[in-house]
């Protein structure tokens, strides 16, 4: 998706958002041989570096949130790794909105919450994210760019 939308990635970066390595082909670390997995991570990083060369922080969020201990150990040498505390569930075709919102409302200050930015998820995302932001904004929370320092 990123390869087809380089102008959008540049616009996202210029707006102050971070671009995070998520593997090039959205590989599941538990199901991928280490050598293939690391080659895919490297390919993604090279792509990111070509789009956002001034990025000094190398961030990684594993696809599906799944890494083996070996993958984690090796990637931690080069990347700051971000695992999500909460997953919105916006990718589920038959999402139970009451259940999803209940789980999201348990979010605590400092948690990373995962929402997806695909057309497939948009209908759920529009409802969940709007309600999530309204709920926490009304309680005085603010939303900021992930700080990995």
> Tell me, what is the CATH class of the largest domain?
Alpha Beta
The CATH superfamily of the largest domain is identified as Glycoside hydrolase/deacetylase
Sheet of most strands: 2 strands, parallel
Which geometry do the CA atoms define?
globular
Cα radius of gyration in angstroms: 16 Å
Structural class: mainly alpha
Overall number of structural domains: 2
How is this structure best described in words?
This protein has helices at residues 6-14, 34-51, 69-75, 97-105, 122-137; strands spanning 59-60, 80-81, 86-87, 113-114. The chain is mostly helical. The strands form 2 sheets. The chain has a two-stranded parallel ribbon with strand order 1-2. Strands 3-4 form a two-stranded parallel ribbon. Helix 4 (97-105) runs parallel beside helix 5. It is globular. The two termini are 28 Å apart.
Spell out the blueprint of helices and strands.
Layout: H1 6-14, H2 34-51, E1 59-60, H3 69-75, E2 80-81, E3 86-87, H4 97-105, E4 113-114, H5 122-137
């Amino acid at each position: 998706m990123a390869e087809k939308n380089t102008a959008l990635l540049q616009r996202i970066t210029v707006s102050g958002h971070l671009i995070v390595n998520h593997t090039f082909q959205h590989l599941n670390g538990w199901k991928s041989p280490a050598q293939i997995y690391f080659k895919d991570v490297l390919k993604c990083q090279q792509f990111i570096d070509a789009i956002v060369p001034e990025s000094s922080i190398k961030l990684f969020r594993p696809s599906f949130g799944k890494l083996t201990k070996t993958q984690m150990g090796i990637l931690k040498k080069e990347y700051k790794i971000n695992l999500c505390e909460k997953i919105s569930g916006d990718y589920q075709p038959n999402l139970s909105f009451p259940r999803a919102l209940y789980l999201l409302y348990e979010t605590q200050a400092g948690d990373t919450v995962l929402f997806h930015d695909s057309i497939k998820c948009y209908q759920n995302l529009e409802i969940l994210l709007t309600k999530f932001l309204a709920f926490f904004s009304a309680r005085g929370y603010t939303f900021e760019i992930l700080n990995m320092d």
